[in-house]
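Example S7 (structure tokens).
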């Protein structure tokens, strides 16, 4: 019987002449016994999202008090610092010092007793929440995680070794997730709101970030972070991973040193940018390199590098500077090499013209599933420039500008492999002719874990550009092109 029901009964007994004070005390004592029984017998699993916590735990656990203190301290810091937290002009060291000082003031006003260990942990957690990336910080610090996909406040997936798994981390609410997104994009001078609900950005270490929020994201804000290694991969790392063979690495190094124009082709998430980084490491240190990207991701190791980044339109829809304008401007900057992070529009025409007008040794990437598809996609992208060029003229541009197409793929076992190194030999009739120097050997099968045992092997055909190596004094091991150097066979478009 509830306390209210017992009091109602007491009022009825009072009308019959019973002592009201005694009846009220008996009702309160009975309710206390009932509450104690519920605390001792409440199930561990609850359906309100606080699984595994009992009423007694909520009342008595010191961890709960620490969590509430963490929430109060975080909210207090947001209130005190306001827009300073997202000020891109404030140096990172100054911002960290400001947050630490304010946090000490907030904790000084709290009455909750804290041990030295609790205070240190609380300070680290609040700093991660205010300056870092909240629940995502442990995933960002985990070197085994290569990609983080947030599909909403309580649904976070990660990629490890090419496989997707759901993570246990979660955001407190949609507003919590939005605060983290806004913090990321504001630090690189971008914005995200209802008028501009999608954005490409980057983290301080160069990791790629894409965010999209309602109304475009129907189920809640979505955040995708593709992490880059803190230490850029070298060619030896890709050989160790099985991404490429030593013979292929030797050939690609010679292609870069011989100033051949190279296009890296691949699908989404196949590792095109990583491979482009490795290829760029072969560029001699005495050459001037200009990189052009939507969001700066490349991690070139040379000193003489100028990094250009596109700019989106402002809130008035003005001031946008695209990749195409940057490619044109780079031609006036006396480049030895032009590296375009990715071509996806009319800038393809400007890049091909640069390759054809003395800027040899340029590098870029394109989305495509095979070398033949890469040629077709470049043709399509050039037509997007709006110049109304005849298709044959476009194909002549592609055939004369691009020397080598390097195809990288993510196989079904989760590994990323270079599957083709293909020479663009020229135009025959209306067909761009291609010749493979390396092809991935799928016939080797898989091991017990489903991992492919094969690797890219030389086709035995010596590319025409090998003659340029000899002219420049670049030597290659005989094993690079295989045991026999057959007469070149060409592949044309269907």
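Recovered sequence:
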């Amino acid at each position: 019987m509830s306390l209210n029901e017992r009091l109602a009964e007491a009022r009825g007994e009072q009308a019959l002449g019973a002592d009201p004070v005694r009846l009220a005390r008996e009702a309160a004592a009975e309710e206390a016994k009932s509450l104690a029984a519920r605390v001792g017998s409440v199930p561990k699993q609850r359906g309100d999202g606080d699984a595994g916590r009992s009423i007694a735990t909520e009342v008595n656990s010191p961890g709960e008090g620490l969590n509430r203190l963490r929430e109060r301290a975080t909210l207090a810091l947001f209130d005190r610092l306001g827009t300073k937290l997202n000020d891109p002009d404030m140096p990172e060291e100054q911002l960290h010092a400001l947050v630490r000082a304010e946090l000490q003031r907030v904790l000084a006003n709290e009455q909750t007793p804290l041990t030295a260990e609790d205070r240190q942990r609380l300070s680290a957690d609040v700093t991660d929440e205010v300056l870092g990336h909240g629940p995502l910080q442990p995933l960002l610090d985990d070197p085994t995680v290569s990609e983080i996909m947030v599909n909403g406040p309580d649904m976070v997936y990660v990629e490890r070794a090419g496989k997707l798994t759901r993570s246990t981390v979660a955001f407190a609410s949609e507003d919590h997730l939005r605060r983290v997104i806004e913090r990321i994009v504001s630090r690189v001078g971008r914005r995200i709101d209802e008028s501009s609900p999608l954005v490409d950005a980057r983290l301080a270490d160069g990791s790629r970030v894409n965010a999209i929020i309602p109304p475009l994201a129907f189920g809640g804000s979505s955040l995708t972070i593709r992490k880059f290694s803190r230490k850029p991969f070298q060619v030896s790392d890709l050989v160790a991973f099985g991404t490429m063979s030593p013979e292929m690495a030797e050939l690609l190094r010679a292609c870069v040193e011989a100033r051949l124009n190279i296009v890296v082709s691949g699908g989404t998430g196949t590792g095109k940018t990583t491979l482009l980084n490795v290829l760029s490491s072969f560029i001699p240190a005495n050459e001037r390199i200009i990189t052009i990207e939507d969001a700066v991701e490349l991690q070139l190791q040379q000193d003489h590098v100028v990094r250009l980044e596109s700019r989106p339109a402002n809130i008035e829809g003005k001031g946008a500077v695209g990749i195409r304008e940057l490619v044109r401007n780079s031609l006036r900057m006396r480049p030895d090499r032009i590296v375009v992070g990715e071509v996806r529009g009319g800038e393809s025409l400007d890049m091909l013209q640069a390759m054809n007008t003395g800027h040899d040794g340029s590098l870029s990437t394109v989305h495509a599933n095979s070398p033949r598809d890469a040629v077709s996609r470049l043709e399509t992208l050039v037509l997007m420039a709006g110049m109304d060029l005849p298709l044959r003229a476009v194909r002549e541009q592609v055939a004369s500008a691009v020397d080598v197409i390097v195809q990288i793929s993510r196989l079904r076992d989760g590994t990323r492999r270079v599957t083709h190194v293909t020479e663009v030999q020229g135009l025959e009739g209306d067909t761009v002719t291609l010749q493979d120097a390396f092809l991935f050997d799928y016939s080797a099968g898989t091991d017990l874990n489903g991992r492919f045992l094969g690797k890219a092997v030389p086709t035995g055909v010596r590319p025409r550009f090998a003659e340029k190596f000899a002219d420049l004094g670049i030597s290659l091991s005989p094993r690079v092109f295989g045991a026999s150097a057959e007469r070149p066979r060409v592949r044309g478009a269907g």
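Notes on this example. Residues 20-41 form the longest helix (22 residues).
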